[in-house]
């Protein structure tokens, strides 16, 4: 990787193109240019047959310069550093600060490329690329450009590898409540990127994370268990607990079925001790909202109330004094 610093002091990590890919791109560009040059030459010969030999020679030289120098410069300028060969190889020409090239960059690269590629058959360009730390030829050095790779190998990220099968369920008794979120994030990032790390560096990081995790859980790392496998197993155990808690299969949800298996007397006593859920009483009309709740009694008429109770409720309270808006919850 090559670090380029932009004008805003932002470091860009780009992968410079090496000699094989650049040579293949140049070869494809030369083939395309030669095809265009042959087509233009045939057209000129057919259209200038009536001219003298000096005029035909001048037109041929002008066409040669225009096609082999002007066309590549125009293509790189208009495509911002992507010629036909570079597009096929996944390369691009950028400035030293990572920005797109302009006409002056393409002009310098094209003019110097005639000398170091066409006139010397690419020998000077190969030597300069071998000497340069970023694989730049002389045209790139004088123009202040760099050829980088646009298509890089895609590595799978964001996937936590599963632990070995012999570690499944081994850490089900660990207390994970004291592990902070920052440590979980660090462990997850390591597991998703451990294939990209140097083996020695990855092993030391796994040992350090496993030690921190063991201190938080209060249980040491088992003997003979690699630190990366230990981290993967603990992360899987945490994910399993969160899944059980989210989908109602955890210890909290198991308490409800266990309570229902008790005796009827225990359930009755628990129901008496627990506050009942509030449900507003359904009164026939607002006129009876202030009437006290009377326990049900055997039916003794149309109203179901005794003679002593009926006057106290119906006669002592005048109709004009009865509230008709709110309601009084039962005592």
UniProtKB/TrEMBL annotation:
<dbReference type="InterPro" id="IPR010432">
    <property type="entry name" value="RDD"/>
</dbReference>
<dbReference type="Pfam" id="PF06271">
    <property type="entry name" value="RDD"/>
</dbReference>
<keyword id="KW-1133">Transmembrane helix</keyword>
<feature type="transmembrane region" description="Helical">
    <location>
        <begin position="24"/>
        <end position="46"/>
    </location>
</feature>
<feature type="compositionally biased region" description="Low complexity">
    <location>
        <begin position="250"/>
        <end position="298"/>
    </location>
</feature>
<protein>
    <submittedName>
        <fullName>Membrane protein</fullName>
    </submittedName>
</protein>
<feature type="transmembrane region" description="Helical">
    <location>
        <begin position="58"/>
        <end position="78"/>
    </location>
</feature>
<keyword id="KW-0472">Membrane</keyword>
<feature type="domain" description="RDD">
    <location>
        <begin position="17"/>
        <end position="144"/>
    </location>
</feature>
<feature type="region of interest" description="Disordered">
    <location>
        <begin position="242"/>
        <end position="331"/>
    </location>
</feature>
<keyword id="KW-0812">Transmembrane</keyword>
<feature type="transmembrane region" description="Helical">
    <location>
        <begin position="111"/>
        <end position="131"/>
    </location>
</feature>
């Amino acid at each position: 990787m090559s670090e380029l610093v932009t004008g805003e002091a932002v470091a860009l990590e780009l992968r410079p193109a090496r000699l094989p890919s650049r040579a293949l791109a140049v070869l494809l560009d030369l083939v395309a240019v030669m095809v265009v040059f042959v087509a233009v030459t045939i057209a000129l010969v057919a259209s200038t047959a009536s001219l003298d030999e000096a005029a035909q020679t001048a037109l041929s030289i002008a066409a040669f310069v225009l096609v082999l120098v002007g066309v590549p410069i125009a293509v790189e300028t208009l495509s911002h550093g992507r010629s036909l060969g570079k597009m096929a190889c996944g390369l691009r020409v950028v400035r030293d600060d990572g920005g797109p090239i302009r006409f002056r960059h393409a002009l310098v690269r094209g003019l110097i490329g005639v000398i170091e590629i066409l006139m010397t058959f690419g020998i000077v360009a190969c030597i300069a690329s071998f000497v340069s730390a970023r694989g730049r030829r002389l045209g790139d050095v004088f123009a202040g450009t760099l050829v980088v790779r646009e298509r890089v190998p895609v590595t799978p990220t964001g996937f936590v590898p599963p632990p070995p099968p012999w570690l499944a369920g081994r850490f089900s008794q660990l207390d994970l409540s004291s592990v902070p979120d920052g440590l979980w994030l660090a462990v997850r990032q390591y597991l998703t990127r451990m294939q990209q790390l140097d083996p020695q560096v990855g092993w030391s990081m796994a040992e350090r994370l496993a030690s921190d995790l063991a201190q938080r859980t209060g249980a040491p790392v088992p003997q003979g268990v690699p630190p990366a496998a230990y981290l993967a197993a603990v992360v899987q155990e945490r994910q399993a607990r969160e899944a059980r808690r989210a989908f109602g299969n955890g210890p909290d949800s198991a308490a409800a079925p266990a309570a229902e298996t008790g005796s009827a007397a225990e359930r009755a006593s628990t129901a008496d001790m627990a506050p009942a859920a509030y449900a507003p009483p359904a009164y026939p009309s607002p006129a009876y909202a202030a009437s006290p709740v009377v326990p049900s009694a055997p039916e003794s008429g149309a109203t179901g109330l005794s003679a002593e109770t009926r006057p106290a409720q119906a006669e002592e309270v005048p109709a004009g004094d009865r509230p008709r808006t709110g309601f009084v919850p039962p005592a």
